[in-house]
């Protein structure tokens, strides 16, 4: 088993399954309504007959894969599923609106994702072998395009941008070309374009930008593969997952610290996305996916290479930051850490992980030191390394230093009103305050903005301030909100003095209301625990 490859003979994933129901494989059993049928044959064997699966009589309902369960209880779906055909939608039914077609497509894709999740949850050892024919479906590709378009971004090595595709090529011909390449087996991933983003500490973060075509196919593949692995992921993982995020991780940390876990292992993995071992990652992916064509897509994206300054560099390890499917693959790789920790070492402390950043909350210094040793050993077996400067042990208590995680600074002290017992408090870290101040200054200091009215300046600031305050409102951030509000007003006063040669410094509430400036909240939403 894959875990034995990394951690030795003592670990058996079958013991964690907790379920002995069936050995069905692939999407055959998934698409049968309510999972009444299962594939008991070899995962690689094609079904040539018996695709009419008996269902409940009198239930005339549509299936996930496009078939229909008749009143007699038989399905009309063929063995290979519904054949994708853009011509049917846009030539035979031209009176359909694009919005109606996409809404119907979203419903079908969502139903398929739910069916995959339920099937994977029922049988933790099941491997899915018929995913590729779902990736090439028009409804999946349309929804993948909508996701890529909503995310925006620049073009890849071919120079094609989202706007160019919409104006020059057309979305439907573009998706039809992708579909034909996938069905004919001619699709090949192109190298990613390397861009380096400066970090606050002076170093640079490499970012890989795939071409638009690869992004669409990655999004389509992720929509089918993600529900399968989402059924396996544990509660301690919060990064890049649907309906989970930094707010839940923030509340979990405060809950355990207030519960007496006052020693913290603050960990960070050095160059995680550039250090993932491809072979070990594919072993983990094959643990759930057996479709050879889908596996080949994932491996091609990993081996596509990087193009920087006209020079092509092959990639032997790592996943490009910027790829649509990279966050999912990173979670698949670190899920092994979550699983081993919660099975063998949970008594040492509580693990809370967000992508490659994590903390372990322990009840004593001895447990914290032991946890750090265990994690170093696990990281070494996975081919990873902890950052020596960013990984440390922290004691939480009154007048102690605290630690930063996910933009928050966590520290133990008296409540905001000054009464009661000491508890875990959280507010924006110094790095977060500095970053938002630099962004506000960049918007209000440019000379080119003097040509525009102040209403336009306020409209640019409002979404930034609103998003920042919504993120940090879960905590004890009132004083930091007041500081930021004062700083924004000061920058607007300076802007007004330069624009209108105005020497005063007074600022009326009526003027703020007229401009529609966003006002930072005066109360915080306290995290549970």
Lay out the secondary structure.
Elements: H1 2-7, H2 28-31, E1 61-62, E2 68-69, H3 86-90, H4 98-122, H5 132-135, H6 138-151, H7 162-169, H8 171-184, E3 192-198, E4 204-209, H9 212-230, H10 246-258, E5 263-268, H11 272-275, H12 278-286, H13 292-302, E6 306-308, E7 311-313, H14 326-344, E8 350-354, E9 357-362, H15 365-381, E10 392-395, E11 403-405, E12 408-413, E13 423-428, H16 430-445, H17 454-472, H18 478-500, H19 509-515
Helix pairs in contact: 4-6, 4-9, 6-8, 6-9, 12-13, 12-14, 16-17, 16-18
In whole angstroms, the N-to-C terminal distance is 39 Å
Runs in which pLDDT lies below 50 for 5 or more consecutive residues are: 1-101
Shape: globular
What class, by secondary structure content?
alpha+beta
Radius of gyration: 27 Å
Number of helices: 19
Mean pLDDT, as a whole number? 81
Biggest sheet details: 4 strands, mixed
- Please report which band the strand proportion falls in: under 5%, 5-15%, 15-25%, 25-35%, 35-45% or over 45%: 5-15%
Record the strand order, biggest sheet: 4-3-6-7
User: Percent range for helical residues?
Assistant: 40-55%
Commentary on this structure:
Helix content is 45%, strand content 11%. The chain is built from 19 helices and 13 strands. It is globular, with a radius of gyration of 27 Å.
């Amino acid at each position: 088993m894959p875990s034995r490859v990394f951690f030795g003979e003592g670990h058996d994933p079958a013991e964690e399954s907790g379920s002995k129901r069936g050995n069905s494989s692939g999407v055959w059993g998934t698409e049968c309504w309510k999972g009444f049928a299962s594939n008991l044959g070899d995962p690689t064997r094609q079904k040539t007959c018996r695709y009419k699966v008996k269902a409940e009589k009198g239930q005339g309902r549509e299936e996930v894969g496009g078939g229909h369960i008749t009143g007699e209880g038989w399905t009309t779906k063929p063995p290979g599923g519904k054949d994708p055909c853009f011509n049917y939608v846009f030539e035979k039914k031209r009176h359909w609106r694009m919005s109606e077609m996409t809404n119907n497509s979203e419903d079908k894709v969502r139903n398929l994702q739910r069916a995959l999740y339920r099937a994977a949850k029922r049988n933790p050892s099941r491997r899915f072998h018929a995913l590729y024919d779902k990736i090439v479906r028009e409804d999946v590709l349309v929804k993948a395009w909508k996701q890529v378009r909503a995310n925006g971004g620049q073009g890849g090595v071919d120079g094609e941008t989202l706007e160019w595709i919409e104006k020059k090529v057309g979305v439907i011909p573009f998706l039809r070309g992708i579909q034909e390449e996938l069905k004919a087996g001619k699709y090949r991933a192109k190298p990613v374009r390397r861009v380096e983003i400066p970090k606050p500490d002076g170093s640079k973060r490499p970012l890989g930008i795939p071409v638009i075509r690869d992004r669409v196919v990655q999004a389509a593949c992720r929509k089918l593969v993600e529900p399968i692995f989402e059924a396996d992921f544990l509660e301690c993982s919060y990064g890049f997952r649907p309906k989970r995020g930094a707010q839940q991780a923030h509340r979990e940390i405060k809950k355990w610290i207030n519960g007496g876990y006052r020693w913290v292992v603050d960990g960070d993995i050095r160059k995680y996305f550039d250090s993932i071992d491809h072979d070990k990652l594919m072993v983990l992916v094959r643990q759930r996916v057996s479709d050879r064509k889908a596996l080949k897509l994932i491996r091609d994206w990993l081996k596509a290479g990087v193009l920087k300054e006209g020079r092509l560099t092959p990639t032997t390890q790592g996943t490009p930051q910027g790829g649509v499917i990279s966050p999912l693959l990173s979670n698949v790789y670190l899920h092994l850490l979550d699983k081993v920790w919660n099975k063998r070492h949970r008594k040492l402390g509580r693990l809370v992980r967000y992508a490659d950043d994590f903390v372990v909350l322990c009840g004593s210094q001895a447990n914290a030191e032991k946890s750090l040793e265990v994690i170093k050993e696990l990281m070494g077996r996975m081919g990873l390394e902890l950052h020596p400067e960013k990984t440390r042990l922290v004691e939480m208590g009154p007048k102690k230093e605290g630690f930063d995680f996910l933009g928050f600074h966590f520290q133990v002290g008296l409540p905001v009103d000054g009464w009661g017992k000491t508890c875990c408090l959280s507010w924006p870290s110094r790095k977060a305050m500095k970053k938002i101040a630099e962004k506000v200054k960049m918007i209000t200091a440019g000379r080119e903005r003097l040509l525009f009215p102040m209403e336009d300046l306020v409209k640019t600031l409002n979404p930034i301030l609103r998003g920042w305050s919504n993120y940090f409102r879960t905590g004890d951030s009132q004083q930091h909100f007041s500081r930021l509000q004062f700083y924004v007003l000061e920058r607007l006063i300076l802007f007004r003095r330069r624009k209108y040669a105005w020497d005063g410094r007074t600022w009326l509430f009526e003027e703020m209301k007229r401009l529609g400036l966003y006002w930072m909240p005066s109360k915080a939403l306290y995290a549970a625990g």
